[in-house]
Specification:
The chain has 14 helices and 13 strands. The structure holds nicotinamide-adenine-dinucleotide and zinc ion (ZN).
């Protein structure tokens, strides 16, 4: 069974990756948080499929399990949800040593993570991600938090889990569109760190999409290892962790503008017969953002055009967008980039590829070059 150890100066934990891992959850949790009561927080989309096995396993290991279900979706990643969790924790007398298990995608992981970080100044958190995005990205590295009406992830804490258990079999019920979005983050990891993984991923797209358990286990383990290594080198995003923002300054601008725009119609390429997808999901915006960053790097002579072409080819093979005619308002997109919270001192800082497997942080990119990159995205 692959297991990745994340070692920080004052804390270490393991990320265990295995098909069927939830059936052994109880004993794993008992090893890090031996207490009588465990809270398990889920959303409605895993209540009937994956929560029962996790609950059975926790009970078999001697826990009294308090299950609480939150509604699914980014709209529920709020302080209201956190307050609701505090009420549950108080009502069931959770103590400093009582484990709190988060089972579902990144929305549950981030929300429950923040509740666990702040309740009694921190109770043991066990992340059980069930989306590919959460497995390779949000459940690893200790960022927790919720949204405010003013913007995404504006309240939060760095709070590392006590344990992460990733059951590859849960991906069988994940809709294809969500799996593709997770693959956008995998492509990101490969672009920033691992040319070999980039090629491997391209060769295994079909096996991944057909949910082949061995292939998914390898995919997740390799991506978790990259995310963990970046976090170990820079836990609080003072340096190298910024590389994980590759594609994201552009992506956040797409996400910020698409809700205020009426021009969002569709993106290219479309799968035959696929209905109008409406606003881009985060992973789709990341795919577009990485391509924009690659176009920019090629235009600035920082990167070979063949690397950009390989990125576009991989994303297309996965079924992610690499160009979009929903991005007509370049001024609005550039305006949104300026107010992204990753902007340092009012300057747009970008992570640009030099080649497949390596990126560089670039400050002060001229606005004209950014504008040209957005336009390449529209007309490709
Ligand atoms: N903390 C971090 O470092 C970090 C990093 C990246 C993203 N995030 C956050 O993660 C969130 C996105 O996470 P996500 O993409 O997992 O979204 P999500 O949590 O909304 O999950 C996507 C959908 O899939 C459903 N689902 C989950 N598991 C399922 C399964 N096995 N089968 C069927 N359906 C399932 C969910 O109920 C939801 O409807 C965002 O809020 C983002 O800000 C955090
Ligand atoms: Zn992302």
């Amino acid at each position: 069974m692959p297991s990745v150890d994340l070692q920080l100066p004052h804390h270490r934990y393991s990320i265990e990756i295995e098909p069927g891992a939830l059936s052994a959850l109880g004993e794993k949790v008992r090893a890090v948080a031996p207490h009588d009561v465990a809270a398990m927080v889920i959303d409605e989309n895993v209540a009937d499929t994956h929560a029962p096995a996790a609950k059975r396993s926790l009970e078999a290991a001697g826990f009294e399990v308090v299950t609480h279900t939150l509604p699914a979706g980014e709209a529920h990643k709020t302080l209201d949800a956190v307050r609701e969790l505090y009420d549950v924790f108080v009502k069931h007398r959770l103590e400093r040593k009582s484990p709190v298990v988060a089972l579902s995608g990144g929305v549950i992981g981030d929300t429950v993570g923040f509740a666990a970080a702040s309740y009694l100044r921190g109770v043991p958190l066990v992340q059980c991600p069930t989306t590919l995005l959460a497995m390779v990205d949000s459940a690893v590295g200790g960022k927790t938090g919720v949204n405010l009406p003013a913007g995404k992830n504006l309240v939060g804490a760095f709070y590392q889990p006590a344990l992460v258990v990733e059951d590859i079999n849960t991906l069988r019920t994940l809709p294809d569109r969500q799996l593709r979005c997770g693959l956008a983050e995998c492509a990101k990891h490969a672009m920033i760190h691992d040319a070999d993984l980039f090629a491997w991923t391209g060769h295994h797209v079909e096996a991944i999409m057909s949910r082949d358990a061995d292939t998914l286990t390898q995919l997740v383990a390799r991506n978790v290892a990259i995310k963990a290594s970046v976090v170990m080198a820079d836990e609080k995003e003072a340096g190298g962790r910024v590389h994980l923002n590759f594609g994201h300054t552009f992506a956040h601008a797409i996400e910020a503008t698409q809700f205020s725009s009426t021009s969002v119609t569709h993106c290219k390429p479309r799968e035959p017969g696929r209905p109008d997808p409406g606003p881009h999901e985060h992973g789709e915006a990341v795919a577009l953002g990485m391509v924009a960053a690659a176009h920019l790097a090629v235009g600035a002579d920082r990167c070979d055009a063949s690397a950009c072409a390989r990125l576009i080819e991989l994303l297309n093979r996965v079924g992610l967008p690499t160009a979009s005619d929903a991005l007509a308002d370049t001024d609005a997109l550039i305006g949104a980039m300026r107010i992204d919270k990753k902007v340092a001192d009012g300057r747009i800082r970008l992570v640009l590829p030099d080649r497949v497997g390596h990126v560089t942080i670039v400050e002060d990119t001229p606005i004209d070059a950014i504008r040209a990159a957005w336009e390449r995205l529209r007309v490709t």
